[in-house]
Amino acid sequence: SAGGKKTVDLVSGSDDGTCVLWDSGEGVKYTLKGHSKGVTQVEAIYHQRDGLLVATGSADSSVKLWRREGDQFECFQTIDLRTGYCFALKFCTLPRSGGVMLACATDNDLVTLYVSSGEQFVVAEKLAGHSDWVRGLDCVTEGDDLLLASSSQDSFIRLWRVSPRDQVRAQRSFEEFSADEDIVLEERVFSVEFE
Questions:
Q1: 70-104 residue pLDDT tens
Q2: What residues have CB less than 8 Å from 159, skipping those under 6 apart?
Q3: What is the pLDDT of residue 178?
Q4: What is the structure's pLDDT at 169?
């Protein structure tokens, strides 16, 4: 909102390669042009530092990220999916840092997480666990964690917990672990047994 007045009520994608931001009182507020094929996925978030961010996924095998510059929206990043197809996009605000994360699902079985780093979004992690295309994403905060849900054509819904890195625990040396304790390395858990 700008000065308490709501400026965008709805974001839609179109087969003509555009994304339209709508205002309930005025109709079409902004038209975002840049894709060469139909826009099949849209996502938007209002962020305290960055204002309104919009992500568009298209049949042209790209995801474009847009932000408001003055009274227009400008594409500030294009993510090339090569020959891939975007099936789901979801912006999330990271609870502890307040940063923005974009979850993206394409025509493989991965969910790619991008985080804002300066002026660009960079790949932070690729979540593997589904065995078919991921078709839907949603998220909710729980304390300092973010819970991300992904639904797939493999008939499963997976819940992923995104937690801030615990710097103290991450810096423990191998000798500090007891023989019956799980070792956490880069947020992936491995169980170790000694015989």
A1: 788 999 999 999 988 999 999 999 988 888 999 99
A2: 147, 148, 149
A3: 63
A4: 47
φ, ψ of residue 176 in degrees (nearest 5): -80, -10
Report residue 168: phi and psi, to 5°. -65, -50
Question: Which helix (H) or strand (E) segment is 170 a member of?
Answer: helix 167-170
Are the C-beta atoms of residues 88 and 41 closer than 8 Å to each other? Answer: yes
Nearest partner of 164 among 92, 82, 96, judged by Cα: 96
The CATH number corresponding to 10-158 among 3.30.390.10, 3.40.50.720, 3.40.50.200, 2.130.10.10 equals 2.130.10.10
CA distance 195 to 180: 11
- Sites in the chain below the pLDDT cut of 50: 1-6, 167-172, 184, 187, 189-192
- Cα 96 from Cα 56, distance rounded (Å): 26
The answer to whether the CB of 146 falls within 8 A of the CB of 175 is no
CB distance 54 to 39 below 8 Å: no
Q: Which two tokens stand for residue 60?
A: 């042209």
- Domain boundary assignment for the chain: 10-158
Element (DSSP H or E) covering residue 165: none
Is pTM beyond 0.85 here?
no
Q: Which two tokens stand for residue 177?
A: 């672990």
